[in-house]
Design a protein that fits this description.
With 407 residues, the chain is of the alpha/beta class. It is 58% helix and 14% strand. The longest helix is centred in the N-terminal third of the chain and has 32 residues, at 11-42.
Length: 407
């Protein structure tokens, strides 16, 4: 059966799933914490007491999870335009840090008891029974929590699930330690405690590091980036991929990329290409929720140099000044600017009605070009004559111009 993606589950369903399993876990952990600590004290097992404190950390983690679940599913706002998904990340790091601190404290205590095992009381069967109960309950809770975590795509809930698994494994170690101590090997209880500490510390580290990587905007894995590149380069019109960056926000992935397109296509065509790239990535790769596409021009290696070129208002004023001696300059309908390789290519549209024949059109075009020929920032001037019923016609297309003029 295919698992539902996070995009198929509403924020409300996601919150309710996280909340319900967390409330169940909190209830179970309250009972297990009391049983382990009380039975550990009564049954003379430091390992069981340590396991009880481990369950107590689950209580704290559960409370933090409920708070994070409420805030992480809230929609974006002015202060958090990318949403609140990183509340989950913070809680995951906090849970991992809590485990590390608890492991260190228990390790120090267990180490001192290991070298004083002659003064340690022998554990009783009540400690053994508590360990067995913890193993069964915690393993069942792990499987249920991991099922819900996969269903709602929650790393925070998955972290808590593995926290439950660590409880089950630690209870197995407690069982071995208590059973060995009951047989006369009193040092086994302290060794079991140290084993629990090492395991708890490892899990805490494994939970914290991915969250820290996310907070410092570590990108996706290499194989994921390759998949993204393949999709981008498969889009028609993408001539090259210059840059690709990614970062995570909880389970969400944000991508920005620089692609190169033909320098002579229209803005609307370039926009279509960029929108296709964005849509393909969001629909084909799960958890990508936003893609920012920056367009660069093909064969425009001197892109930085265009920053020194003037904007439209300055250029049109400059052209009008150069062409002020020509009456036809007042009839210009459209000027299109192309910033290419550090220079300007300018398309000028004129009404066909201002010229009487092909010769006059050629002379006017030649004169317009000559008046700006010495301008160092202008590379090419293209003059087009627009008929009211036809597309713009370049003076170079002599046969079409002849037809329009009835020659």
């Amino acid at each position: 059966m295919q698992k539902p993606s996070s995009s198929q589950i509403s924020q409300k369903e996601r919150y309710l799933g996280i909340r319900n399993v967390t409330i169940l876990a909190v209830t179970i952990n309250i009972l297990l914490t009391l049983i382990k600590i009380i039975f550990g004290i009564v049954g003379h097992s430091q390992a069981l007491i340590a396991d009880g404190l481990h369950s107590f950390s689950d209580l704290i983690a559960g409370g933090m999870t409920l708070v994070a679940a409420k805030y992480s599913t809230q929609p974006p706002d002015i202060e958090h335009p990318y949403g609140h998904a990183r509340f989950e990340t913070l809680v995951t790091i906090a849970v991992g840090g809590l485990l590390l601190l608890m492991a260190m404290g228990l390790f120090i205590e267990a180490q001192s008891r290991l070298f004083e095992s002659t003064h340690v009381l022998r554990p009783t069967s009540i400690s053994l029974a508590a360990a067995v109960l913890s193993i069964l309950v915690k393993e069942a809770l792990f499987h249920y929590t991991i099922y819900i975590a996969d269903r709602v795509q929650s790393p925070m809930l998955r972290a808590n699930a593995w926290h439950h698994r660590s409880d089950a494994i630690s209870s197995i170690i407690v069982f071995i330690g208590v059973a060995g101590s009951m047989l006369g090997y009193l040092w086994l209880d302290a060794v079991a405690t140290i084993g629990i500490c090492l395991m708890i510390g490892y899990i805490g580290l494994a939970l914290s590091l991915p969250g820290i990587n996310e907070l410092v905007d570590t990108g996706l894995k290499k194989h994921q980036l390759i998949e993204i590149k393949d999709i981008i380069q498969s889009v028609e019109g993408v001539r090259a991929l210059d840059q690709l960056r990614s970062r995570k926000m909880g389970v969400k992935v944000l991508v920005d990329t620089h692609i190169r397109v033909d320098a002579h296509i229209s803005i609307s065509e370039a926009h279509k290409i960029s929108e296709t790239v964005r849509t393909q990535l969001i629909t084909q790769i799960e958890n990508i929720v936003d893609v920012l596409v920056h367009l660069d021009l093909e064969n425009n290696q001197k892109a930085q140099s265009i920053l020194n070129l003037p904007f439209r208002n300055e250029i049109t004023a400059h052209l009008q000044q150069r062409w002020q001696s020509l009456k036809a300059a007042n009839a210009i309908e459209q000027i299109t600017l192309h910033y290419l390789s550090g220079k300007l290519t300018i398309d000028v549209d004129l009404p066909l009605s201002i010229v009487q024949d092909i010769k006059e059109a050629q002379l006017l075009s030649q004169r317009l070009t000559e008046l700006v020929a010495d301008d160092p920032i202008i590379d090419t001037i293209n003059i087009y004559y627009r008929s009211t019923t036809h597309k713009p016609i370049s003076i170079l297309k002599i046969t079409e111009l002849h037809k329009l003029m009835g020659l």
